Amino acid sequence: MYRIFWAHKSLGLPFLAACVIGILIVALCSLILHVLIIRPVLDQAPINQLLATGGVLFFLQAAATMAFGVEFQNVGVRLGSVLVADMSFSWSRIAAFAVSIVAMLCLWLFLTRTYIGTAIRAIAQDRQIMPLMGVDAKKVYLATSAIGGGLAGLAASLMVLQYDIYPQIGLQFGPLIFMICVLGGLGNMVGGFIAAFIISQFITIGSSCLHTEWGYAVAFLFFMIAIFIRPQGLFGGKS
Amino acid sequence: MLAIFPSLDCSSTYCLVRRFSTGFCWPGLLALLALGLNLVFGVIDVVWICYAGLV
Fold first, then answer.
1. CA-CA-CA-CA torsion for A106, A150, A201, A169, nearest 10 degrees?
2. I need a surface site. Which of A71, A166, B14, B31 has the fewest CB within 10 A?
3. Cα A41 from Cα A35, distance rounded (Å)
């Protein structure tokens, strides 16, 4: 989000161009992150991997604080809202929803119709066998990191329309995203997609029936109960 | 009842439908982020705790 803010406000680029630059920079950052941090710990214990990536999170926050300060920033782009049956819907949310669906469809097409996409799915199914069949796992990992980073960059482009920018915004969304991934079954993309809808309904309906803050508590409570019943996630095992 | 569910003050089917609609628009972002994290975990088998920080 800071990259888009910087490109739009400091460089004076149009918002869409700033978003494209933001997406590319995040993809590049993910590549660098993979090469410098992830690759060295690939064969190590999961706890080391968690600590390494957790350290990166705090580094990113500290770097953002140093570079942009702790103040809330805003790109200042407002899309307005639309009135449907006496209900007001923000265009930024509608746009975010539409762009997300299109991006997911594009990713699905990429994973099913291209060679590198097929290699990515093959590696995900069997990490040991695929290199024996001529697939360069390092390249596939790099491509996956770049795509993952690009998705984060795209999400950031949509988030700057709805949220203020501050260094700790990652902490606001991090646990929520992780919860969605676990609930959907870690590694299961369709499960994650459906889990996002379930959790967001729990948060919005929960905050409607109780206080706003309770929405998150209700969602996490549901998550805990669901994980007690199905530790592999609601859609685990259906990758 | 309102002491337990204070937000029901504004509640009616309208309010609930509005919340439901909002909840329908919101998860696009979350799903996009979850998709990225799931993709990385599914392929590389490393949970990027810092993934949301990249945003």
1. -170
2. A71
3. 10
Tell me which DSSP letter residue A34 carries: I
What residue type is assigned to position A128 of the chain?
Q
CA angle centred on B46, ends B43 and A101, rounded to 5°? 55
* Contacting residues of B for A56, CB less than 8 Å apart: 49-50, 53
Distance between first and last Cα of chain A: 31
Distances (CA, A) of A50 to A37, A202, B14: 11, 28, 44
Residues of B (1-55) whose Cβ lies below 8 Å from A: 5-8, 11, 14-55
CA atoms within 13 A on the CB side of A144: 31
Q: Under DSSP, is residue A89 helix (H, G, I), strand (E, B) or coil?
A: strand
Both tokens assigned to A75: 């790109």
**Whole-prediction pTM:** 0.83
ipTM of the predicted assembly exceeds 0.90 = no
Cβ of A192 and B31 within 8 Å? yes
Q: What is the pLDDT of residues A201-235, one digit of tens each?
A: 888 877 777 777 777 888 888 888 988 888 887 87
Q: Is A37 left (phi over 0), alpha (psi -120 to 50) or beta?
A: alpha
User: Where are any strands of DSSP class E within A74-150?
Assistant: 81-84, 87-90
CB atoms within 10 A of CB A48: 12
Among A200, A210, A87, A192, which residue's Cα sits nearest to residue B23? A200
CB atoms within 10 A of CB A35: 14
**Distance (Å, whole) CA A197 – CA B14:** 20
Chain A residues with CB inside 8 Å of B3's CB? none
